[in-house]
Amino acid sequence: MAALVVPALRAYQPRGWSTTELPLSETELGSEMVSRTLRYDDFTYLHFRNGPAEFTIYVAYWSAGKVDLRTVNAHTPDTCWGTNGWTATEARDNFRGFTPGTRTAAGQLRSFVNGGTMQHVAFWHLLDGRAVEMWRYGFPKLTFMWRLFGKEHRSLGGEQFFVRIASSRPLSEIWSEPALQGVFERLQPSGLVVSGFNPAPE
Questions:
Q1: How far apart are CA 2 and CA 85, in angstroms?
Q2: What is the C-alpha separation between 52 and 34, in angstroms, rounded?
Q3: Residue ranges for the chain with pLDDT beneath 50
Q4: Ramachandran area for residue 40 (φ above 0: left; ψ -120 to 50: alpha; else beta)
Q5: Predicted confidence (pLDDT) per residue in 175-200, tens digit
Q6: Which among 189, 84, 72, 80 is positioned nearest to 132, based on CA atoms?
Q7: Dihedral of alpha carbons 24, 22, 43, 102, sign
Q8: DSSP sequence for 75-87
Q9: Which of 26, 109, 144, 174 would be 92's cystine partner, CB 3.0–4.6 Å?
Q10: Element at 73 (helix H, strand E)
Q11: pLDDT attached to residue 27
Q12: What is the reported pLDDT for 57?
């Protein structure tokens, strides 16, 4: 069922919103290089707009055993955006979006600026239906690794997702938009939303 998340999201057309599928790079060669580096099974990168409300959603999927944990962790916005001219102006770890009775898995919240352009970003790495707890720059927390290998006796061979939401507006201003709620609903099998379908940031 998890393998169907990306196709379902790619086909999503919220009423009243324009939807544009974006390339991973400005050039075809660049997109091919990204694909060879990340080695994902499937991905989608979409831009949604309705007047001043807009956001992008990027989701990549790896089947069980396709890549190791660090291959995914090594390509977060902290590293990739930073090497492409973006500067972090705000950083918050262990971010959870929620409303009463609803919450997302723990993720990362960032604000980046590049030449006067601002982007507010939330991202999650999900392994086998649960969030990978990480330090900045993609290093998994030792406590997470200990629970995975020691206490829970689990391997790193499960399905993986990387999810990134970005907008020129603060995410608190768009989180309740129905179009974004539809995105979360389709991402439910990934483990991103751990309770309900209607998350909003704290």
A1: 34
A2: 30
A3: 27, 29-30, 99-100, 142, 146, 150-153, 199-200, 202
A4: beta
A5: 888 898 889 889 989 998 876 655 44
A6: 72
A7: positive
A8: TSHHHHTGGGT-E
A9: 109
A10: helix 69-73
A11: 46
A12: 96
For tokens 């990387």, what's the residue?
162
The region, left, alpha or beta by phi > 0 then psi within -120 to 50, assigned to residue 153 is left
Half-sphere exposure of 190 (CA within 13 A, CB side): 30
The conformation of residue 134, written as its DSSP 8-state character, comes to B
Distance CA 189, CA 3 (A): 9
Helices (H) and strands (E) in the chain, counts: 7, 11
With CA atoms as reference, report the closest residue to 107 among 35, 19, 28, 202. 202
Alpha-carbon dihedral 198, 126, 161, 135, rounded to 10 degrees: 110
Helix, strand, or coil here: 38?
helix
Beta bridge partners of residue 87, listed in sequence order: 113
34: number of CA atoms within 13 Å, CB side?
16
Q: How far apart are CA 142 and CA 133, in angstroms?
A: 9
